[in-house]
Amino acid sequence: MRDFTYDRAAATSDAVASASDEGASFIAGGTNLLDLMKLEVMAPEKLVDINRLDLHDIEETDTGGLRVGALVSNSDLAADRRVRRDYAVLSRALLSGASGQLRNKATTGGNLLQRTRCYYFYDTAMPCNKRQPGSGCAAIGGQTRLHAILGASEHCIATHPSDMAVAMRALDAEVEVEGTDGARRTIQMAEFHRLPGDTPAVETVLKAGELITAVILPPPPGGRHVYRKVRDRASYAFALVSVAAVARMDGDSIGDVRLAFGGVAHKPWRDDRAEALMKGKAPSDALFDEAADLILADARGQGGNDFKIPLLRRTLKAALSEATQMGEPQ
Amino acid sequence: MKTSLRINGEERQLDADVRTTLLDALRQHLGLTGSKKGCDHGQCGACTVIVNGRRINSCLTLACMHDGDEITTIEGIGTPDNLAPLQKAFVEHDGFQCGFCTPGQICSATAMLEEAKAGWPSFVSDDLDDIDTLSDEEIAERMSGNLCRCSAYPNIVAAIRESVKETAS
Ligand SMILES: Cc1cc2nc3c(=O)[nH]c(=O)nc-3n(C[C@H](O)[C@H](O)[C@H](O)COP(=O)(O)OP(=O)(O)OC[C@H]3O[C@@H](n4cnc5c(N)ncnc54)[C@H](O)[C@@H]3O)c2cc1C
Ligand code: SF4
Ligand code: FES
Ligand code: FES
């Protein structure tokens, strides 16, 4: 690990001021950053420890939603009674991620900003446009089991590994951030993460030194919440493909449905067209296939990840059958 | 950097490079070698310790971030002549072969049982709000952050199952 200076922030204003130094990085749970620092994939010159900031609470908002402090651990968020009851898809997504130990340390803000698990990003001997802009992409033509089938570019085909972010995308959450000028702004989850394009090193719309202070969940969407995750072992593994589905039935037809996908793109993926297509219709195998056709119309495999195209279709259909209780008495 | 840690009920002072992980601080600076280093990347659980009541991977955190924290390592859970119930259960059920993963397994299971008592759900809980006694499937899921290279899993689950029964009764 490269040497760095260590600064412990006592207030959000200190944290953003301290992080405005060249080469500075916030550290929260440290479960992603320290892993990457040990491998020298990341080498911040200064760490700003934000763990003592007052961002550990989950509070109800005026509009009936929840404001989740950036330092709320993944365990606490998953176990929160209100989250379990009203945002079960988020509890389930969190519980599917990492391990009990890691979830105790991992924070809401850090989870959103975790880096890709692309093997070549981790291997400093290999070219990688994300780690070293302009060096090329070793994944293209290489091992692509973990890689994207949607929204990739010729510069990067990495996926975003978070489960939590997929559920937050389905829930239309917003990310609250504080800038170096002390002003706070909110960013829709839809806009927060970027597609790789020709600048894969720029992963979010955050500006340098901006601190995530909270994630805001809108009022509960109701309906049935499902999180399906397919991986190489039954637990403690990243998603090959995951589907967050929230569906509310209106008699025999689908009143409202939200779907977000993990493991398939550089950001949690969502396709409004597929949701619009299903609304007001009775759930059926044929309808789910039509939705999958829309979502996968532009999907492209890289060889090692071709399996994700049929896998996403099947996982989507399984999640939708469960969320709409297809074939079960209503 | 100067850091005070309360380890197994004892106040300990550390003055180490800021890069020192909590695991290296315990093993190399404070003489507590019970916690093991399997992977150093959060992937195996051998380094599991309990910090302020929560189990964590001590390899993925810096010692200096824990100034003032309360830490329990395997040395604080029991001693050879005064074994904790979980330790006894591991011996009785043969919950290990080489024993390298065992301190992490026991620290992890100790805190895991508290999580279950607090009603925390897991990914395999059918109902997120109604967690009764832990099934073997629940134990396996909740312990998935602790790998065992000798694959003593069935006996590890059996040892924990027995402790679940004891805590319930
Ligand atoms: C073995 C292993 C398995 C895993 N499996 C999964 C899995 O299955 N699913 C999954 O979703 N995740 C998984 N993870 C990843 C884990 O969820 C992340 O490491 C964790 O969520 C990161 O949170 P943290 O608080 O530790 O972040 P840190 O490591 O502290 O920080 C990560 C990044 O976020 C920045 N940051 C942190 N907080 C803020 C803030 N408030 N404002 C601005 N910037 C901030 C940091 O500067 C850093 O760049 C796994 C990790 C490991 C090691
Ligand atoms: S896919 Fe992206 S992260 Fe992986 S090697 Fe290519 S540029 Fe790097
Ligand atoms: S040594 Fe910490 S998880 Fe493997
Ligand atoms: S007993 Fe050998 S690694 Fe578990």
UniProtKB/TrEMBL annotation, chain A:
Q: Which domain of life is it from?
A: Bacteria
**Does the record's keyword annotation contain Flavoprotein?**
yes
Q: Does the keyword Ribonucleoprotein apply?
A: no
Kindly give the SUPFAM superfamilies that the UniProt entry links to this protein: CO dehydrogenase flavoprotein C-terminal domain-like, FAD-binding/transporter-associated domain-like
Which Pfam families does the annotation name? CO_deh_flav_C, FAD_binding_5
Entry keyword set: FAD, Flavoprotein
Q: Under what name is this protein listed? A: Xanthine dehydrogenase family protein subunit M
Q: Which residues form the FAD-binding PCMH-type domain?
A: 1-222
| Cross-referenced SMART domains | CO_deh_flav_C
UniProt GO molecular function: FAD binding; oxidoreductase activity
TrEMBL record, chain B:
Mind telling me what this protein is named?
2Fe-2S iron-sulfur cluster binding domain-containing protein
Q: Which Pfam families match?
A: Fer2 (PF00111), Fer2_2 (PF01799)
What would be an example GO MF term here? metal ion binding
Ranges in a coiled coil:
none
Q: InterPro entries, from UniProt?
A: 2Fe-2S-bd (IPR002888), 2Fe-2S-bd_dom_sf (IPR036884), 2Fe-2S_ferredoxin-like_sf (IPR036010), 2Fe-2S_ferredoxin-type (IPR001041), 2Fe2S_fd_BS (IPR006058), Aldehyde_Oxdr_Iron-Sulfur (IPR052914), Beta-grasp_dom_sf (IPR012675)
Question: Is Metal-binding among this UniProt entry's keywords?
Answer: yes
Species: Mesobaculum littorinae
For this UniProt record, give its keywords in alphabetical order, as a comma-separated list: 2Fe-2S, Iron, Iron-sulfur, Metal-binding, Oxidoreductase
Boundaries of each 2Fe-2S ferredoxin-type domain copy?
A: 1-77
